[in-house]
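Discussion board: Methods & Data

I've been asked by a reviewer to show the raw model output for two of the constructs in my manuscript, not just the figures. I'm not sure how much to include, so I'm pasting the format here to get opinions. Each protein appears as its amino acid sequence followed by a line of discrete structure tokens. Is this the kind of thing reviewers expect to see in a supplement, or should I convert it first? Here is construct A:
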Amino acid sequence: MALTVAEKDLKKRELFLEGNILKGVLTVCVPMAAFQLLNELFRVFDLAITARINPESVAAVSFFNQLNNSVTAVGTGLSIGAGILIAGFYGAADYENVKKTVNTTFFLAVGGALLLAISLILSGKWVLRLANTPEELVEIGWNYYRVIMVNLVFVFFNNVYVAIEKARGNGGRILGVNLLMAAAKFTLSGVFVLIFRKGVVMIAFSTLLSNLLVTLIGIYSLRDPKDVFGISLEYIRMDRLFIKKLFGISLPVMAEKFAFSTGKVVVNSVGVDYGTQTVGALGVSNSISALSTVPAGSIGDGGASIIRQNIGSGKKDRALKVFKSVFLVDVAWGTLGFLLTWIFLNPILSVFSGGDAAFAQLIRQIFLLEMLSNIFLAVHAAIMALLYAFGYTKLSFGINFARLFIFRLPILFALKQFTALSGGTAMGIVMMVSNGLTGLFALLVAMVVLRKEYGSGWIKLLLH
């Protein structure tokens, strides 16, 4: 089959490889940041709606969402690894391998999601006991858990679809699709909870339906089997060398995302000793912080695709300049997000607390400390773009493993065992210290990698 590349895709490829670097970065990264910001608003909206039920429901949703994040980390890692390969092949104009990677990744993602969903539903009660889930949260959230596990199939597919659009440079399309998803999500959740007075299960169900909408859009967008990015079963390749290459990049990212999300589950399990409301408050604080930190990560993801395309095209010096632009955009976004969440903290707290003054104060205790380190996470996001693009996924795993298991959990255990700090203060200190140290550690790793790739003159080349 003769493969074709759409004219608009070729023009974007030319921009990334030949055009203005900052324009290319902003073309992809700003819509990607807005896309991820909407995703976080989904979570914020869920928690805000849930707060209208009771604080215990907020704790349940926060707890189960962290479990869900641990599982979806597998699909996220696979899609990031595939996106790295696709961007490299696309930059090198190796369209056969682009097509093969697209279709094989879809097959692996959907098949893996089906197996995970079935096994996690069947073993759900055992999984929840392993995660030290309080009985009252199990009672509130068991059906919520089952619905979000079914939702995995659509989430895994959508992750791959977004990775493909990212590699093509279609940040605007990603944003447009997510706006539709947001409209569906907000409408359904509002109707189910605020009008019909349903519980947390219908919040999960509205998430499932909105993800299904994106899946259908993705299938329609990639319907042309002749297009280099189109779905075509005949291009599924399960040969050993290709699978080894795909998983060689993806597995460290999967492990990184899974370890980080699972570490959060462990943090929640320890936090239960401070009370279930502390777990809920930590989840809310994380969600508020994510309004600035997660879009920064998405900017890094979009930037990684452009860096990788230039590496694939043999333009390594240009790839370094792309990284510089990604770094500056990330830090600018992180700084802006920090300032906005600080300025509007009181109205945000009033939305999340559901009128519970004690719960609002608990959220404030954690967030005022956590937000101090958010700019370090913007630095971390830019460094991840560099490591992903150059294929140093084992180093990215090491940084994020250290974030949880060296910089966060030991400090949490120490504060719990050796101090009399309140739950809110202890959790806030843990988040602040671990995030700050992670950003500094990532910066040191980046310096080592840049010296290895560009020699001792990398600073001069970067600033040129």
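Construct B, same format:
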Amino acid sequence: MNLTISVLVACLLATVSAKISPGPCPPKPETKPDFDATQYIGDWFQVQGIPNFFTPDNSSCIRASYGDLGDGTISVHNVLTYPNGLFGEICGSAYAPNPEVPGELLVLFPFSFPGQYLVLDTDYENWSAVYACVDLLDEFKFEYTWLLTRDPEPSDEVISTALDVFVSKGISLEDFETYQQGPQCVYEDPEVPSCIDT
């Protein structure tokens, strides 16, 4: 590995807490072949997943709200409470670049490259299992997972069903963290101007 790659990796490791491992990403897992974005819109709460730079360890109250923009794209509004107690949010959009593979989405946020959002499976009403992997010069990979549920405090059965999807796709649960949800959560902070209004 040359010096440039080593320095780049060191910088990323200093700021990113996603799962990083050597080698390129594995073959892209199969996504839900009949994924229907219309049924998917609404609020989803992240109850488990691999921590990363935008949802670091000990974050809580993570919610993703999806809407229909009417032009084939989906609005994305993510909120969370950081470990230091501060409220955070970001707005963006998502779309399926290949209509024949509707479960393979790209998410666009300001000042960033498009990110993968692979819907492995969902029942739309209770749970969704989502995965992404980013190659770093074919030397390292960052893996991301989102176990999302409609209910911020889902049953063990709902969580188990979604976890089984990750396992069936060969995705390790070793680095999954549980994110706190519940009545103490603030999903809209009146003191913080919302990006959905800008």
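Answer (T.O., handling editor elsewhere):
This is acceptable in a supplement if you add a one-line summary per construct. For B, something like: Confidence is low (pLDDT under 50) at residues 1-17.
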